[in-house]
Amino acid sequence: MTIDIFPAKEGQGRIHGMREYQQTYEAAQRDPNAFWDRVAQRLTWFHPYHTVREGDFTDGSVNWFSGGRLNVSFNCLDRHLKTRAEKTAIIWEADNPADTQHISYKQLHREVCRMANVLLAHGVRKGDRVCIYLPMVPELAYTMLACCRIGAIHSVVFAGFSADSLRDRILDCGARVIVTANEGLRGGRVLPLKQICDRACEGLAKLDSVLVVRRTEADTPMVEGRDHWLHEAMKAQRAYCPAEWMHAEDPLFILYTSGSTGKPKGVLHTSGGYLTYASYTHETVFGYRENDIYFCAADIGWITGHSYIIYGPLANGATTIMFESTPMFPNPDRYWDIVERHGVNIFYTAPTAIRALAAKGDQWLEGRDLSSLRVLGTVGEPINPEAWQWYYDKVGGGRCSIVDTWWQTETGGMMITPIVGANPVKPGSATLPFFGVEPILVNEHGERLDGNDVTGHLCIAKPWPSMARTIWGDHERYLHTYFSTYPGYYFTGDGCRRDEHGNYWITGRVDDVLNVSGHRLGTAEIEASINSAELVAESAVVGFPHAIKGTGIFAYVVLQADAESSDHDVVSFSVREQVTRDISKIARPDEVLIVSGLPKTRSGKIMRRILRKIAEHEYEKLGNLTTLADPNVVEHIVEAHHENC
Ligand code: ATP
Ligand code: MG
């Protein structure tokens, strides 16, 4: 039943040594079309493309693999059935550690087909949008893959978002169908998802159906004609659904960015280029092998979960873990418990989680058998060297490769990152560009900074297959955000240093760069230093108007669990000394405020724009707070600031 017009080449992604990295990188630079043409053979195409790439950054319009036909769900499922039917595709690790489910490729295929038929029965057609507001349950994977099977466009909304955030996203993408659950379970707590969904959907004219997963026994009011239990609907469908022949450039999904810098953007990804890149990077960067147990601890509500829990791993026929709970439940050793029980080989998480776990103390790792681990990844923000070292020593036992992967919702896949088996790593550096990625640094005037040992704004000079194609419903914003600042280049919004050996260090958002007495300082470097000070768990620095220096440095500091009662002056002194020692007197914070927590997005990123407003005493102008994980944190910080500053 598999149509092998071009058989997928497996194992083509593994790299052995720095020389091979360089040769491959140079080959991709010399002839990008030939390079990506070869890589794209890893997918199964129903019909070959006629052109590898069309367009460039001059008008921000790029197509990959034009004329080609494929189906993403077919690539993640059907083509594995010949050789991997009984292999576990998804290990579902429920909130309760005693509930684990192994879902084979064959089972996954059947459930996805059923789900696709349910969507068809509810009138969903090619190009329609389906909004998914689900916790980390298997139905989330079924729905995503079912959408791509029939050509519908999914938009996953993280199940921690409020009714207002959900409503904004449903309206923005014009979804006809929503898939949700009666309740969610996370960290032993119950999330009333259906209730939130009902509030979000009030009076929405365009909405046809709400499909409800029964995650708990609880009942929920069902709106007649609109709401349906998903398990009943699926039972009524056959477990076969043909896969649509999609164009390579047909939309695959919409995903909203974290909103760290403002109103979230509905980033649109398409089919052929996205899957090529997600699967190729998953195999190459992690050095993935056929029998690995792979665990990405992100939520599927973020791009990391899309590319590296679902699409990349499943396209590669991998066993991927879907984790419903939090690293702290029932205890702060849940990750290590999972690693031990399932024999995880590759583990991927975010620096914010690493810091939180390190702050809980090493006793949570003691006695755990983590010897199956081979590769550890991080993503989401610069990792401070102290957290890196803890991850390397304590989790990896000094044996594992660490890949610090820099990328964005808009890039679809990892862009600057170490590659397992290729380059030597440096704590805190994302090191070198992936194949086909040409990072460049420019100064404020848009002049290219060549050579090493330079700092500037990070841009990408050449199109890559998984780049976002537009912002849903607002192409002008897309062109304006990414292609107008430095014409001819994709602008990332991040600052970056290329060191004397050509390694890249992300210094933080360009908007966050501090200009202190004429010196440009990145927030990441100062925070890394503060975090290494005694008593400190984590920190965030922002600038504030300063009569003499132009910009002063304001540091918000969260203390370690056992240091919470420490004296303010002691902490302030130790922080200021640390920064002076590590960086210089210029970088020394003018103000240090101890706070109980930092304002973070749901994906764990610090929202410095809020902290900037607080530092400026502009408590009334904090802006959009809808993507905050815990809005109460802001009140506490405002109080602490009001009292002390
Ligand atoms: P918005 O664009 O709405 O403000 P966001 O940028 O936080 O939201 P994401 O796409 O989730 O949304 O985050 C991408 C950003 O995360 C990058 O631009 C970068 O600032 C940061 N980042 C991701 N990985 C790394 C890393 N390994 N090192 C340093 N920074 C990273
Ligand atoms: Mg961004």
UniProtKB/TrEMBL annotation:
Its EC number is 6.2.1.1. GO terms for biological process: acetyl-CoA biosynthetic process from acetate. InterPro entries: Ac_CoA_lig (IPR011904), ACAS_N (IPR032387), AMP-bd_C (IPR025110), AMP-bd_C_sf (IPR045851), AMP-binding_CS (IPR020845), AMP-dep_synth/lig_dom (IPR000873), ANL_N_sf (IPR042099). GO terms for molecular function: acetate-CoA ligase activity; AMP binding; ATP binding. Residues 21-76 form the Acetyl-coenzyme A synthetase N-terminal domain. Keywords: Acetylation, ATP-binding, Ligase, Nucleotide-binding. Residues 78-470 form the AMP-dependent synthetase/ligase domain. The keyword ATP-binding applies. Residues 525-605 form the AMP-binding enzyme C-terminal domain. It holds the Pfam family AMP-binding_C. The keyword Acetylation applies. It comes from the Bacteria. It is an enzyme of class 6 (ligase). Belongs to the ATP-dependent AMP-binding enzyme family. This is Acetate--CoA ligase. It comes from Sulfidibacter corallicola. The gene is acs.
